[in-house]
Design brief:
mainly beta, 5-stranded antiparallel beta sheet, 4-stranded antiparallel beta sheet
């Protein structure tokens, strides 16, 4: 009977996976929810029969982490849809977080990381790829969400109600428009990355008019080199308030690029030969850490059928002073088998302790890692 139920769950949750540039797709990847726990939550099940490795840690030096099963639990209405996960987190000043769940709606994470609520699931979100999320402190709080599949930017309130929808920019060049990330800078502009689109450019939205403003910088890279101001996939864009800069994840070139608000290149940071999806900053102790979720990790020594180098599973890279100081391998070190591709990661500090929230893709999954204190 248990086998029958498990097969039924797999069939119910399986869904076609759409292709995007730079992704390593695997057909038929699935995630199923395990039975509800006594606290009412569920965890995404692992392909490994043994599940998370008991007592395991990942990372190195003073930045090692363990899996926190309690904080990783999801209510069934989210766990049943987590296979579609393909996005990233928005932080609010009060500590709450939000993310969009592809083809589903908006998820709210409480500041203590314990309560997860599906607060909007309607036709407005039904066909969209809610790829990332940014928080705007206005009118009680607004969320700005790029929808790469719909070729639009959603602006909603914290209940998920539509405030405004921006479609293709009027100044946009010919080709596909597929925005993948957005963040809000100190100059009253939101910076948008056309990561899956034809241009790879970064352009702005004027937050006063809530309308597109201008192309600021960027272009498609034309070779295999790391080229300042050009991107393989301008997948993630993050504002850094410490120096009023914008940081862009140049995914297939294994680095992130830093620009001033006018688009002048300032610096580049290597991501340990891993493909960065997005960047998050967190202040912990005396350190300002850069937390980078990477879709795939370093080359693993193998080749594919076209004789191209293959890469290991996704990881989270933590940089201090521009250098990788810790690599979090959820799949191999912690036994979290569904984390083949880390799509986004965010660092948060709660009651003096550092946590890293991880969002996986193909299969979609979610986990919270807790800093190990010596």
């Amino acid at each position: 009977m248990r086998l029958v139920l498990a097969l039924m769950a797999l069939l119910a949750l399986s869904t076609p996976l759409s292709a995007h540039e730079g992704h390593d797709h695997e057909a038929g990847a699935t995630v199923v929810a395990s039975p509800a726990s006594s606290s009412g939550g569920v965890e995404t099940a692992f392909k490994s029969k043994k599940g998370p490795t008991p007592g395991a840690t990942t990372g190195s030096g003073d930045l090692r982490f363990k899996y926190n099963a309690e904080l990783s639990k999801l209510p069934s209405e989210i766990a049943d849809r987590i296979l579609r996960a393909h996005g990233g987190f928005a932080k609010t000043p009060g500590g709450d977080l939000y993310f969009g769940l592809r083809d589903t709606g908006l998820i709210h994470l409480s500041a203590d990381l314990r309560t997860k609520t599906l607060i909007a699931a309607n036709e407005y979100y039904a066909s969209g790829g809610l790829h990332n999320c940014a928080y705007l402190e206005r009118d009680g709080g607004l969320l700005i969400i790029p929808d790469d599949e719909g070729g639009r930017i959603l602006i909603v309130d914290l209940e998920g109600n539509e405030v405004k929808t921006l479609k293709r920019p009027p100044f946009f060049p010919k080709g596909n428009y597929k925005p993948t990330d957005i963040d809000i800078a100190s100059n009253g502009k939101a910076y948008v990355a056309d990561g899956y689109g034809s241009t790879k450019k970064v352009f702005t939205i004027d937050l006063e008019t809530m309308d597109y403003e201008a192309i600021k910088f960027g272009d498609r890279v034309t070779d295999s080199n790391q080229t300042p101001g050009r991107f393989s996939t301008s997948h993630g864009v993050t504002f850094d308030p410490t120096d009023d800069s914008v940081v862009v994840a140049d995914r297939e070139r294994q680095w992130v690029q830093k620009f001033d608000l006018d688009g002048e290149f300032l610096a580049g940071f290597q991501t340990g030969d891993s493909n960065p999806c997005d960047i998050d900053f967190v202040d912990f102790g005396d350190d300002r850490l850069m937390v980078v979720g990477c879709l795939v990790g370093p080359k693993d020594g193998g080749t594919d059928k076209n004789d191209r180098p293959t890469r290991s599973n996704g990881v989270v890279q933590i940089l201090r002073d521009g250098e990788v100081v810790s690599t979090l391998d959820l799949k191999n070190d912690l036994g979290l088998d569904q984390f083949r591709h880390v799509h986004n990661a965010a660092g948060v500090v709660r009651d003096g302790k550092l946590y890293v929230l991880c969002y996986g893709w193909n299969p979609g999954c979610y986990a919270v890692l807790e800093h190990v204190v010596e």
